[in-house]
Every structure is written in C-alpha cells, then in structure tokens.
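Quality-control log, excerpt.
Job 1 of 2 completed; input and output follow.
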Amino acid sequence: MAITKETQIGKIEVVGQYKSVQVRTDTVIMEDAEELSRKYHRHALMPDADITNEHAEVQAVCNAVWTQDVKDAYATFIAEEKAKLEADQGEE
C-alpha cells in the first residue's frame, strides 16, 4: 500500500478582453490506484505577470494568447485606471 501525493494542472481557461489565464491546480492523494482525496487551488494571471515559475503548459497558453497587442492594451488599461484613481484622490 503506497500513498502518494501528486499535483496536476486540472484546468486552464482564458477569459476576458485582456486574456486572463485562470489555472486550477489539483492536489491528489492516492493509495495504490485509488484516489483518496482531491483539493483545488486556483490562481489567475494577467498579461503583465511573470510566468517563469509556472508549469510549462500554463506558459505555453500564456505565450499563445498574450500577443503584443493584448499586452499593450492591458498596459494602457492599467495606466488609465491608475490615472483615474489619482485624479479621484486629488479631488478629495
């Protein structure tokens, strides 16, 4: 009877205008060939994220969907939101 713990990429989804990459990582506990438990962890990556420590599958998806146009549009969006926030704080 061997109990093992393994981490798997359960799901990779691309959503939204700026191609957010959502990743579900499954932690699976197995005894012999029978699954005893499964827990999920989720995280999202935006086009300005450092993906060097991500799983190779996640990196491949990010590199495929985060074109330079997507990265530029997201950077513009962030800059505009920051400017709005600063303007709102200046009015107070």
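Job 2 of 2 completed; input and output follow.
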Amino acid sequence: MNVPTNKKLTVKQTALVDTLVAKGCTVAQAAKEAGYAKGESGRVTACKTMKLPHVQQYLMTRMNEEFGMSATLAAGTVRRLATGAKSEYVQLEASKDLLDRAGYKPIDRSQVQVAGDIRVSIDLG
C-alpha cells in the first residue's frame, strides 16, 4: 500500500479508529463517539474517512498492537487449559495447539508419493 508519510491524522480520525479497535463497534457507532455529525451524514463521512490510505495504515497499526497485547492472554488461556481443564480432550487439544505453535506440528500424512513412470494408453479405434 503506497501511503504518503506526510499525512497526519486529525483528532476525529484518530478517535474514530481508536474507538473501532477498542470497542469493536460499527463505523456508525464509532463515528458518533468520535464526534462526527449525527445520523447518516456522520456515518457516510466516517466510511469515507476509513478508506483514506493514511487512516487505513493507522488502523492496521492499532490492530497489530491490540492483537499483540491479546496474544499473551490467549497463550495463557491455552496453557491453563492444557494443564488444568477437566476434560482430557480439551487438555489434548490445547496441548496440540501449543506444540503446533512452538513448531512441533506433526507431519501431514496425506502426502502421496509415486515411484516409476505412469503411462496411459487410450485406444479409440
């Protein structure tokens, strides 16, 4: 994405993106909280704002930050399930997920290897 680096976000644009990321609400709800015009006009302006390259870049940055902070919580949850879940099935699946993410995924057994030449002869006459 070619994003001009000289474009600065306005206070409303920043508030719009921050509200979307923090609350996971609709653009219309975020526009209202960010101080855009009321009703359909504010929603339309916010939708157009979200299409601007520098706003999209800020959105991606904020989402990456949010996912990074949530990843530690998610990893802790999976680790807790692997060691303390009542169901052995849940423990197994959580353990497999931890191993997979650590790089110890089992070999995919759906590989098919064919040795030698394969010839197909079709006689139409």
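Post-run check on job 2. The helical segments are 11-23, 27-34, 39-50, 53-84, 88-101.
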